[in-house]
Amino acid sequence: MTILHLIPVGLGDSAPERWLPQTAREIAAQLRFFIAENAKSARAFLKLIGTAVPLQEITIHTLRADTTAQEIRDWLAAVPTDQDLGLVSEAGCPAVADPGALVVAQAQARGLRVQPWTGPSSIMLGLMASGLQGQRFAFHGYAPVKAHERDAQLRAWESLSHKHQQTQILIETPYRNLALFEALLSVLRESTRLCVASSLTCKEESVRTLSIQEWRKAGAPDFERQPTLFLFLAG
């Protein structure tokens, strides 16, 4: 039976030995079929870990925003029964805060075995290092871009955090890190704890948790253009 391997990709510039188990690296190196959020970054990943066959002989399907369920079914059906395939994200774990979930759903419907491999997830790593509530949490992705909509949404998430003692987790495009950070400091209560986790698993990694009041005194961290996760918990 064909196996769909869910293979994590690094969060930044660090050796794969640091974030991907040897068995997963060995399996990925043998695969001839992949579905990827970005074919270029998938090739870079395969070049990094090394492949048993030339890259030009490996089939990589690109999972686009307009990819249909039928296209995915066709990709899966085209894999020989004696072959497996891999699913990789742009970064981190496939199918978690990632369109790869569509592929997994079709694989499950087809009766394929789905094999997840451990690897870096910024959501989990940031939550682990934050010191915030790890029993109840919610990942929201991106906040609205327009300031008034963003501020209203942040207040709503803070209200939920206070009511349920639930950590709220969000991300931002790296060049807008400072804008979101300043919005959080402006909108959230002084007692709310905010964790800023940047460049996880990389040499520039930084994770710091302070109250909003303390952040206002400390100032913004050095996170310009670095992939950053923001987590907060209302007191």
Arithmetic mean of pLDDT: 96
Helix count from the secondary structure assignment: 9
Strand percent estimate: 15-25%
Strand order of the largest sheet: 3-2-4-1-5
Apparent shape: elongated
As a whole number of angstroms, the C-alpha radius of gyration is 20 Å
Helix content: 25-40%
How many β strands by DSSP? 10
In the predicted model, the low-confidence regions spanning at least 5 consecutive residues are none
Described by strand count, sense and barrel closure, the largest sheet is:
5 strands, parallel
Q: Class by helix and strand content?
A: alpha/beta
What is the element string, with H for helices and E for strands? EHHEHEHEHEHEHEHEEHE
Terminal CA distance: 50 Å
Please outline what is shown here.
The protein has 235 residues and is of the alpha/beta class. The chain is 37% helix and 21% strand. The chain has a five-stranded parallel β-sheet with strand order 3-2-4-1-5, sandwiched between helices. The chain has a five-stranded mixed β-sheet with strand order 6-7-10-8-9, sandwiched between helices.
Question: In terms of topology, how is this protein built?
Answer:
Blueprint: E1 3-6, H1 16-19, H2 22-30, E2 33-36, H3 39-49, E3 59-62, H4 69-77, E4 85-88, H5 101-110, E5 113-116, H6 122-130, E6 137-142, H7 147-164, E7 167-172, H8 177-187, E8 193-198, E9 206-211, H9 212-218, E10 228-233
Parallel strand pairs: 1-4, 1-5, 2-3, 2-4, 6-7
Antiparallel strand pairs: 7-10, 8-9, 8-10
Describe this structure in words.
- The chain has helices at 16-19, 22-30, 39-49, 69-77, 101-110, 122-130, 147-164, 177-187, 212-218; strands at 3-6, 33-36, 59-62, 85-88, 113-116, 137-142, 167-172, 193-198, 206-211, 228-233.
- The protein is α/β, with parallel strands linked by helices.
- The strands form 2 sheets. It has a 5-stranded parallel sheet, with helices on both faces.
- Helix 4 crosses helix 5 (101-110).
- It is elongated, with a radius of gyration of 20 Å.
- The N and C termini lie far apart (50 Å).
- The mean pLDDT is 96.
